[in-house]
Amino acid sequence: MPAGSDPAPGAACETVGVGSAASSGHPGGGASALSLVGAAFGYDGVTRVERLTLEVPAGTAVALIGPNGSGKSTLLRGILGLAELTAGEVRVLGETPRRARRFVGTLPQADTRDANLPLTLRQVVTMGLYRSRGALRPIGRDGRTAVSGALERVGLAALARRRFGELSGGQQQRGILARALVSDPRLLLLDEPFNGLDRENREALLGLVRGLREEGRTVIVSTHDLEIAQEACTHVLLLSSGHEADQPGHPAAFGPLDEALTLAAVQHAFQDTTVELDHHTVTTTRETE
Ligand SMILES: Nc1ncnc2c1ncn2[C@@H]1O[C@H](COP(=O)(O)OP(=O)(O)OP(=O)(O)O)[C@@H](O)[C@H]1O
Predict the structure, then answer these.
(1) Which residue has the higher pLDDT, 6 or 253?
(2) CB of 43 shorter than 6 A to ligand 1
(3) Which residue windows are transmembrane per the record (predicted)?
(4) Computed from CA positions of residues 139, 143, 145, 148, in that sequence, does the dihedral angle turn out positive or negative?
(5) What do you get for the CA distance between the two ends of the chain, in Å?
Protein backbone atom coordinates (compact mmCIF):
# COMPACT_ATOMS: atom_id res chain seq x y z
CA MET A 1 0.00 0.00 0.00
CA PRO A 2 1.85 3.03 -1.13
CA ALA A 3 1.72 6.40 0.55
CA GLY A 4 2.46 9.62 -1.28
CA SER A 5 5.41 11.32 0.34
CA ASP A 6 8.73 12.96 -0.37
CA PRO A 7 11.47 12.58 2.17
CA ALA A 8 12.11 15.80 4.03
CA PRO A 9 15.08 17.78 2.68
CA GLY A 10 18.31 16.71 4.33
CA ALA A 11 16.90 13.46 5.64
CA ALA A 12 19.68 10.91 5.42
CA CYS A 13 17.58 7.82 5.75
CA GLU A 14 15.64 5.93 3.11
CA THR A 15 11.92 5.69 3.66
CA VAL A 16 11.03 2.12 2.91
CA GLY A 17 7.42 1.39 2.01
CA VAL A 18 6.80 4.84 0.61
CA GLY A 19 5.60 5.16 -2.95
CA SER A 20 4.79 8.08 -5.15
CA ALA A 21 1.07 7.72 -5.75
CA ALA A 22 -1.92 5.59 -4.93
CA SER A 23 -2.29 2.64 -7.22
CA SER A 24 -5.97 3.18 -7.95
CA GLY A 25 -6.04 6.97 -7.83
CA HIS A 26 -9.79 6.67 -7.24
CA PRO A 27 -11.25 7.15 -3.79
CA GLY A 28 -13.90 4.97 -2.29
CA GLY A 29 -13.03 1.54 -3.68
CA GLY A 30 -15.33 -1.18 -2.33
CA ALA A 31 -12.69 -2.90 -0.20
CA SER A 32 -11.21 0.34 1.10
CA ALA A 33 -12.09 1.54 4.56
CA LEU A 34 -10.22 4.78 3.95
CA SER A 35 -8.97 6.33 0.76
CA LEU A 36 -6.88 9.48 0.69
CA VAL A 37 -5.63 11.11 -2.52
CA GLY A 38 -3.29 14.03 -1.98
CA ALA A 39 -5.27 14.81 1.15
CA ALA A 40 -4.30 17.53 3.61
CA PHE A 41 -6.07 18.50 6.83
CA GLY A 42 -5.86 21.47 9.14
CA TYR A 43 -7.70 24.24 10.90
CA ASP A 44 -8.76 27.74 9.81
CA GLY A 45 -7.16 27.24 6.41
CA VAL A 46 -3.78 26.19 7.85
CA THR A 47 -2.63 22.72 6.81
CA ARG A 48 -1.30 20.61 9.69
CA VAL A 49 -0.87 17.25 7.96
CA GLU A 50 -0.45 16.77 4.21
CA ARG A 51 0.60 14.66 1.22
CA LEU A 52 -1.56 11.74 2.29
CA THR A 53 -2.17 9.30 -0.54
CA LEU A 54 -3.06 5.85 0.63
CA GLU A 55 -5.73 3.16 0.75
CA VAL A 56 -6.49 1.37 4.01
CA PRO A 57 -7.98 -2.04 3.17
CA ALA A 58 -11.05 -3.02 5.17
CA GLY A 59 -10.36 -5.45 8.00
CA THR A 60 -6.91 -4.15 8.83
CA ALA A 61 -5.58 -2.51 11.98
CA VAL A 62 -3.36 0.48 11.27
CA ALA A 63 -0.95 1.85 13.86
CA LEU A 64 -0.71 5.62 13.39
CA ILE A 65 2.67 6.60 14.72
CA GLY A 66 4.57 9.87 14.78
CA PRO A 67 6.17 12.43 17.03
CA ASN A 68 4.17 15.02 18.96
CA GLY A 69 2.58 17.52 16.60
CA SER A 70 2.99 15.41 13.46
CA GLY A 71 -0.77 15.51 12.95
CA LYS A 72 -2.06 12.16 14.19
CA SER A 73 -5.11 13.61 15.95
CA THR A 74 -5.70 16.02 13.08
CA LEU A 75 -5.79 13.15 10.61
CA LEU A 76 -8.24 11.22 12.80
CA ARG A 77 -10.42 14.34 13.07
CA GLY A 78 -10.18 14.77 9.30
CA ILE A 79 -11.46 11.22 8.80
CA LEU A 80 -14.44 12.21 10.94
CA GLY A 81 -14.96 15.44 9.03
CA LEU A 82 -14.07 17.47 12.12
CA ALA A 83 -10.80 18.90 10.79
CA GLU A 84 -10.83 20.87 7.55
CA LEU A 85 -9.85 19.15 4.28
CA THR A 86 -7.44 21.77 2.91
CA ALA A 87 -6.46 19.80 -0.22
CA GLY A 88 -7.12 16.54 -2.01
CA GLU A 89 -9.81 13.95 -1.57
CA VAL A 90 -10.97 11.71 1.25
CA ARG A 91 -13.40 8.80 1.20
CA VAL A 92 -14.38 6.93 4.34
CA LEU A 93 -16.11 3.58 3.73
CA GLY A 94 -16.74 4.89 0.24
CA GLU A 95 -18.53 8.02 1.51
CA THR A 96 -17.70 11.56 2.50
CA PRO A 97 -16.48 11.77 6.12
CA ARG A 98 -19.77 13.30 7.29
CA ARG A 99 -21.94 10.65 5.67
CA ALA A 100 -19.70 7.86 6.95
CA ARG A 101 -19.67 9.16 10.53
CA ARG A 102 -22.52 6.99 11.74
CA PHE A 103 -20.50 3.89 10.84
CA VAL A 104 -17.38 5.11 12.64
CA GLY A 105 -16.66 4.60 16.34
CA THR A 106 -14.22 6.89 18.10
CA LEU A 107 -12.14 6.93 21.23
CA PRO A 108 -10.78 10.45 21.73
CA GLN A 109 -7.66 11.23 23.73
CA ALA A 110 -8.26 10.83 27.46
CA ASP A 111 -7.40 14.45 28.25
CA THR A 112 -10.16 15.72 25.95
CA ARG A 113 -13.03 14.22 27.91
CA ASP A 114 -14.78 15.19 31.10
CA ALA A 115 -14.51 12.29 33.53
CA ASN A 116 -16.65 14.16 36.07
CA LEU A 117 -19.88 13.87 34.11
CA PRO A 118 -22.60 12.84 36.56
CA LEU A 119 -23.36 9.71 34.54
CA THR A 120 -23.10 6.01 35.17
CA LEU A 121 -20.91 3.85 32.95
CA ARG A 122 -24.04 2.42 31.35
CA GLN A 123 -25.32 5.91 30.51
CA VAL A 124 -21.96 6.84 28.96
CA VAL A 125 -22.03 3.72 26.79
CA THR A 126 -25.66 4.41 25.81
CA MET A 127 -24.55 7.78 24.42
CA GLY A 128 -22.78 5.79 21.70
CA LEU A 129 -26.18 4.91 20.24
CA TYR A 130 -27.17 8.52 19.74
CA ARG A 131 -24.95 8.96 16.71
CA SER A 132 -26.83 6.41 14.66
CA ARG A 133 -30.31 6.83 16.21
CA GLY A 134 -30.47 10.41 17.42
CA ALA A 135 -30.73 11.39 21.08
CA LEU A 136 -34.52 11.69 21.14
CA ARG A 137 -35.49 8.25 19.87
CA PRO A 138 -36.18 5.72 22.64
CA ILE A 139 -33.33 3.27 23.08
CA GLY A 140 -35.60 0.20 23.05
CA ARG A 141 -34.80 -3.38 23.87
CA ASP A 142 -32.30 -3.87 21.04
CA GLY A 143 -30.46 -0.73 22.17
CA ARG A 144 -30.30 -1.99 25.76
CA THR A 145 -29.05 -5.34 24.51
CA ALA A 146 -26.36 -3.60 22.44
CA VAL A 147 -25.23 -1.59 25.49
CA SER A 148 -25.04 -4.74 27.63
CA GLY A 149 -23.13 -6.54 24.88
CA ALA A 150 -20.61 -3.72 24.54
CA LEU A 151 -20.06 -3.62 28.31
CA GLU A 152 -19.66 -7.38 28.36
CA ARG A 153 -17.19 -7.22 25.54
CA VAL A 154 -14.86 -4.83 27.34
CA GLY A 155 -15.21 -6.79 30.59
CA LEU A 156 -17.09 -4.10 32.53
CA ALA A 157 -20.63 -5.52 32.78
CA ALA A 158 -20.33 -5.72 36.57
CA LEU A 159 -19.57 -1.99 36.81
CA ALA A 160 -22.44 -0.77 34.62
CA ARG A 161 -24.14 1.20 37.43
CA ARG A 162 -20.91 2.71 38.74
CA ARG A 163 -20.47 6.45 38.28
CA PHE A 164 -18.10 6.97 35.35
CA GLY A 165 -15.83 9.35 37.25
CA GLU A 166 -15.24 6.75 39.96
CA LEU A 167 -13.71 4.25 37.55
CA SER A 168 -9.96 3.89 37.14
CA GLY A 169 -8.33 5.46 34.09
CA GLY A 170 -8.05 2.06 32.41
CA GLN A 171 -11.68 1.21 33.13
CA GLN A 172 -12.78 4.59 31.77
CA GLN A 173 -10.78 3.89 28.63
CA ARG A 174 -12.51 0.53 28.17
CA GLY A 175 -15.85 2.20 28.87
CA ILE A 176 -15.24 4.73 26.12
CA LEU A 177 -14.31 1.88 23.81
CA ALA A 178 -17.64 0.24 24.69
CA ARG A 179 -19.35 3.53 23.80
CA ALA A 180 -17.57 3.39 20.42
CA LEU A 181 -18.55 -0.24 19.87
CA VAL A 182 -22.21 -0.04 20.79
CA SER A 183 -23.31 1.22 17.38
CA ASP A 184 -21.57 -1.70 15.63
CA PRO A 185 -19.06 0.50 13.74
CA ARG A 186 -17.21 -0.68 10.67
CA LEU A 187 -14.30 1.66 11.32
CA LEU A 188 -12.80 2.53 14.71
CA LEU A 189 -10.56 5.53 15.32
CA LEU A 190 -8.68 5.24 18.62
CA ASP A 191 -6.58 8.24 19.64
CA GLU A 192 -3.78 7.22 22.02
CA PRO A 193 -5.95 4.65 23.83
CA PHE A 194 -2.97 3.00 25.52
CA ASN A 195 -1.64 6.10 27.27
CA GLY A 196 -1.37 5.64 31.01
CA LEU A 197 -2.76 2.10 31.05
CA ASP A 198 -1.43 -0.52 33.46
CA ARG A 199 -0.40 -3.88 32.07
CA GLU A 200 -3.76 -5.56 32.66
CA ASN A 201 -5.77 -2.87 30.86
CA ARG A 202 -3.15 -2.67 28.12
CA GLU A 203 -3.40 -6.42 27.47
CA ALA A 204 -7.21 -6.25 27.51
CA LEU A 205 -7.21 -3.42 24.99
CA LEU A 206 -4.65 -5.14 22.76
CA GLY A 207 -6.86 -8.24 22.73
CA LEU A 208 -9.89 -6.12 21.83
CA VAL A 209 -8.09 -4.47 18.90
CA ARG A 210 -7.03 -7.87 17.59
CA GLY A 211 -10.58 -9.23 18.01
CA LEU A 212 -12.15 -6.27 16.20
CA ARG A 213 -9.84 -6.71 13.27
CA GLU A 214 -10.53 -10.45 13.13
CA GLU A 215 -14.25 -9.61 12.84
CA GLY A 216 -13.49 -7.64 9.68
CA ARG A 217 -13.68 -4.18 11.24
CA THR A 218 -11.00 -1.64 10.44
CA VAL A 219 -9.12 -0.04 13.30
CA ILE A 220 -6.85 3.00 13.15
CA VAL A 221 -5.04 3.50 16.42
CA SER A 222 -2.63 6.31 17.18
CA THR A 223 0.18 5.47 19.55
CA HIS A 224 3.71 6.35 20.53
CA ASP A 225 4.35 2.74 21.41
CA LEU A 226 5.87 0.67 18.63
CA GLU A 227 5.32 -2.52 20.59
CA ILE A 228 1.58 -1.95 20.38
CA ALA A 229 1.87 -1.69 16.62
CA GLN A 230 3.77 -4.93 16.50
CA GLU A 231 1.39 -6.77 18.81
CA ALA A 232 -2.02 -5.72 17.49
CA CYS A 233 -1.73 -4.12 14.05
CA THR A 234 -1.38 -5.34 10.48
CA HIS A 235 -0.34 -2.00 8.97
CA VAL A 236 1.50 1.12 10.00
CA LEU A 237 1.27 4.76 8.96
CA LEU A 238 4.30 6.71 10.13
CA LEU A 239 3.96 10.47 10.19
CA SER A 240 6.93 12.82 10.28
CA SER A 241 6.73 16.40 11.46
CA GLY A 242 9.47 17.50 9.07
CA HIS A 243 12.54 19.63 9.56
CA GLU A 244 11.21 23.15 9.67
CA ALA A 245 9.36 24.53 12.65
CA ASP A 246 5.63 24.56 11.92
CA GLN A 247 6.05 22.39 8.82
CA PRO A 248 2.94 20.24 8.43
CA GLY A 249 3.17 16.58 9.26
CA HIS A 250 3.46 14.20 6.32
CA PRO A 251 3.77 10.45 5.83
CA ALA A 252 7.18 8.81 6.22
CA ALA A 253 5.86 5.33 5.42
CA PHE A 254 2.66 3.39 5.01
CA GLY A 255 2.08 -0.29 4.42
CA PRO A 256 1.93 -3.74 5.96
CA LEU A 257 3.79 -3.75 9.25
CA ASP A 258 6.65 -6.00 8.17
CA GLU A 259 7.36 -3.84 5.12
CA ALA A 260 6.75 -0.33 6.41
CA LEU A 261 7.87 -0.45 10.05
CA THR A 262 11.57 -0.33 9.33
CA LEU A 263 14.31 1.34 11.27
CA ALA A 264 14.93 3.76 8.40
CA ALA A 265 11.30 4.83 8.27
CA VAL A 266 11.12 5.22 12.03
CA GLN A 267 14.29 7.30 12.00
CA HIS A 268 12.76 9.51 9.33
CA ALA A 269 9.59 10.01 11.33
CA PHE A 270 11.27 10.57 14.71
CA GLN A 271 14.15 12.69 13.60
CA ASP A 272 15.66 13.75 16.88
CA THR A 273 13.97 11.48 19.32
CA THR A 274 14.85 8.26 21.03
CA VAL A 275 12.64 5.51 19.67
CA GLU A 276 12.33 1.78 20.23
CA LEU A 277 12.03 -0.84 17.54
CA ASP A 278 12.06 -4.57 18.14
CA HIS A 279 12.95 -3.89 21.77
CA HIS A 280 16.18 -2.11 20.80
CA THR A 281 16.51 1.51 21.77
CA VAL A 282 17.58 3.62 18.84
CA THR A 283 18.68 7.22 19.04
CA THR A 284 18.38 9.20 15.84
CA THR A 285 19.81 12.61 15.19
CA ARG A 286 18.28 15.40 13.16
CA GLU A 287 20.22 16.12 10.02
CA THR A 288 21.25 19.73 9.44
CA GLU A 289 21.37 21.31 6.02
N1 LIG B 1 -8.02 22.72 17.10
C2 LIG B 1 -6.85 23.14 16.59
N3 LIG B 1 -6.73 24.38 16.03
C4 LIG B 1 -5.57 24.80 15.50
N5 LIG B 1 -4.42 24.06 15.47
C6 LIG B 1 -4.47 22.83 16.03
C7 LIG B 1 -5.68 22.30 16.61
N8 LIG B 1 -5.42 21.06 17.06
C9 LIG B 1 -4.11 20.81 16.77
N10 LIG B 1 -3.55 21.87 16.15
C11 LIG B 1 -2.16 21.97 15.67
O12 LIG B 1 -2.00 20.97 14.67
C13 LIG B 1 -0.68 20.40 14.74
C14 LIG B 1 -0.84 18.89 14.84
O15 LIG B 1 -1.45 18.60 16.08
P16 LIG B 1 -2.02 17.15 16.41
O17 LIG B 1 -2.68 17.23 17.75
O18 LIG B 1 -2.82 16.66 15.28
O19 LIG B 1 -0.66 16.31 16.50
P20 LIG B 1 -0.42 14.88 17.17
O21 LIG B 1 0.54 14.16 16.28
O22 LIG B 1 -1.72 14.22 17.44
O23 LIG B 1 0.30 15.31 18.51
P24 LIG B 1 0.33 14.56 19.95
O25 LIG B 1 1.14 13.31 19.75
O26 LIG B 1 1.02 15.54 20.83
O27 LIG B 1 -1.10 14.29 20.34
C28 LIG B 1 0.00 21.02 15.95
O29 LIG B 1 0.84 22.05 15.46
C30 LIG B 1 -1.15 21.59 16.75
O31 LIG B 1 -0.74 22.75 17.47
Answers:
(1) 253
(2) yes
(3) none
(4) negative
(5) 31
Q: Which of 133, 137, 83, 136 has its CA nearest to residue 108?
A: 83
For ligand 1, whether the C-beta of 66 sits within 6 Å is: yes
Supply the DSSP string of 27-82, one letter for each residue. Answer: S--TTEEEEEEEEEEEETTEEEEEEEEEEEETT-EEEEE--TTSSHHHHHHHHTT-
What is the whole-number distance in angstroms between the Cα of residue 70 and the centre of ligand 1?
7
3-state percent helix, strand, coil for the chain, nearest multiple of 5: 35, 25, 40
68 close to ligand 1 (CB < 6 Angstrom):
yes
Tell me: ipTM over 0.95: yes
pLDDT above 90: percentage of residues in the chain: 55
- Domains annotated for the chain, with CATH where assigned, are 32-283 (3.40.50.300)
pLDDT tens-digit series, residues 23-69 = 333 333 357 999 999 999 999 999 999 999 999 999 999 999 988 88
Ligand 1 pocket test, candidate residues 72, 109, 112, most atoms within 8 A of CB: 72
- Check: CB of residue 267 under 8 Å from CB of residue 10: no
Of the listed ranges 84-93, 178-187, 263-272, the least confidently predicted one is: 263-272
- Ligand 1 binding pocket includes 77 (Cβ within 6 Å): no
Residue type, 224: H
Q: Is the pLDDT of residue 17 over 50?
A: no
Q: Please name the residue whose Cα sits nearest to atom 31 of ligand 1.
A: 69
Of 13-17, 53-57, 194-198, which gets the smallest average pLDDT? 13-17
Centroid of ligand 1 to alpha carbon of 133 (angstroms): 31
